Queue: 3 jobs
Job 1
Amino acid sequence: MRTSLNIPQELLDEFDETWEAEGMESRSRAVREAMQEYVERHQTLEELEGEVVAMIVFDYEHTLVIGELHDVQHEFQDVIETTSHSHQGEWCLEGLFCRGPAARIRELAYRLRDFDAVGRANVTFLQAN
């Protein structure tokens, strides 16, 4: 199936450099592999149940979203044990160390991804019971 995507030129250039450096045969192959990894990561996030320990790392443009992010973090203080924060100009990197029900941590990750000013929100599960 053919499809078209709107991708910023800078991201496309970096993507092309990456798959070519890895010796992949084509951009299409690299996109299929990236999509498969995304699906697998999402399925893992969706399938976890019970109590877990996790870290959510996300980056965001500070001035556009800081108030709303603080509201979300307060709403989820039942699972956020501690945070770590670093500034890089207008962009920030934040780490949330979490413990609690997988469904609640999953909800937090999805809420963070809802913001246009959040670049990425990645979840790593350190322990699942």
Note: The chain has a mean pLDDT of 89.
Job 2
Amino acid sequence: MRETEVFIDSEEIAEFFYHELIKRGYTPSVQESEELADITFDYLISKCIIEEWDE
């Protein structure tokens, strides 16, 4: 299996969740979308799908 470098931005995830939830009839706050993004990011780290980098 080859390794692929992927950059995941939690702000981009938050924006994605915000728009997807609105399309599905929910009215999330920006803070709620950011919390979901943080949870998603932590999940991906816990499953070793990504690793966190400090720049």
Note: The chain has a mean pLDDT of 90.
Job 3
Amino acid sequence: MSDQTETKAARDVGVVIQESENNRPVIEAIEQDNPACTISHSPGLVRITAPQRIVITQETVEEKLGREWETHEFQMAIVSYFGNIQEWDDDEIVIAWDH
């Protein structure tokens, strides 16, 4: 039973983003802010997975984009996600499983 609990606690979350010039800085920002993430490329899509949670911060995305970025713009980039949106405000988006 202990092994199942540990496996559940480390369950990956993820997001699939359309690969484009506009989204590349967003992908780079996610990678920077989530050092444990894994990035997989397939034609037209980028899948980012991480153990337990992914955080997308407005500040890092703006640094990568070189302009202001509103978190609602993320809706235009994502194709799908797995996990739960635990927080989505003006400063950051957090995807994680509810335990």
Note: The radius of gyration is 14 Å.
